[in-house]
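Protein in question filed below.

…
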Amino acid sequence: MRSVMRVGVLWVMLSCISIQSYAQADSAAVLFENLRSRLDVIKDYVADVRIKIDISFMKVPPLDGKLYFKAPDKMKLERKGGVSILPKNNVSLTLNSMFPTGGVTVIDAGRDIINGKTVKVIKVIPLEDAGQIILTKIWVDEARNLALRTETTTRDNGTVKMDLAFGNHLKLGLPDKVIVYLDVKEYKLPKGVTMDYDASQQVKPAVKGDKKRQKGKIEINYLKYEVNKGLSDKIFMETN
């Protein structure tokens, strides 16, 4: 009789653990879909930006310009004094590019603390082998339905980490500041970003033969947004 009771208790415990695991996974999936749904509302935008670039093998002064975005993956950076269209295979400067599209598996990764605030952590794995993203880890402010940090592993650009700060554009779910941390074997900034400066501000090239992983940081301050204006695809066509 005792053996039967023990088996029964064990079965109940295992059932409870299984139910809890399913509930956590379901909760994490809903959380991710809520985040993705909020991003899906933003069809396009034009933002006045100020960008500071800190990459070990380059010396680039801060730049002011406009950042154009159109869902799902079109982006163009237009700086004062020149135009740059970022290639698709380069690291994008938008949160949308860090979120996998299509079918995904979402895993509950527990909790963490960012700036004294407890946040939920989820891991997102694409089900289809169709894009650059292999895995994305997201730190979520559940109360505000915001991604405060992402860490995305890509096929060609290594691991890209983004920290996001929200304020003036919180209602839109768009950040006021994004810091992109790069850890890549080789990362080339677009020519339009790095050229046409004074001789004293020339780019410092990488040391030839240096195969160590390069680290860098790009800080983007969004000063003003114009959202869902119906941007034409022609804006994103290469002109050279």
